[in-house]
Write a structure and sequence with these properties.
- The protein is mainly α.
- Strand 1 (about 5) and strand 2 (about 10) form a beta hairpin.
- The chain has helices at about 15-30, 45-60, 70-80, 90-100; strands at about 5, 10.
- The longest helix is centred in the first third of the chain and has 20 residues, at about 15-30.
- Mean pLDDT is about 75; it is low at about 10-15.
- Helix 1 runs antiparallel to helix 2 (about 45-60).
Length: about 110
């Protein structure tokens, strides 16, 4: 039975299988050149890819979802991924939605 927190329903489908599939999709698309910039560079290099994988791992485990931390380097990777062309952005937006739902992401977006 899924645990229900104030407004987020945590299940294996929303925080587990989804991110694992999205992580695989985004990393393989990055490696194959789908997300290449206008001058042919890959969106993520090896160091940035490692930070991206650590971000996905922070979102994967439902038991640790509320105790994990998201650092600014991981959010910088998400910002960089959000710069890809609109016809390739949907897997990234799915992952970004999960990042925004993470309790530790709120301080990073606090403007006031």
């Amino acid at each position: 039975m899924p645990k229900i927190y104030s407004y987020i329903k945590v299940t294996k489908i929303t925080i587990g299988t989804l991110e694992r599939g999205l992580m695989k999709k985004i990393t393989t698309d990055n490696d194959s050149g789908v997300f290449n910039t206008a001058n042919g560079d890959k969106t993520m290099n090896a160091v940035q890819k490692g930070k991206f994988v650590s971000l996905c791992n922070s979102l994967l485990d439902p038991a640790k979802f509320y105790s994990t931390k998201i650092n600014s380097d991981q959010l910088d990777i998400m910002d960089k991924l959000l710069q890809v062309s609109l016809d390739k952005i949907f897997p990234i937006l799915d992952l970004y939605r999960q990042v925004l739902l993470h309790p530790d992401s709120a301080p990073h977006f606090n403007v006031f």
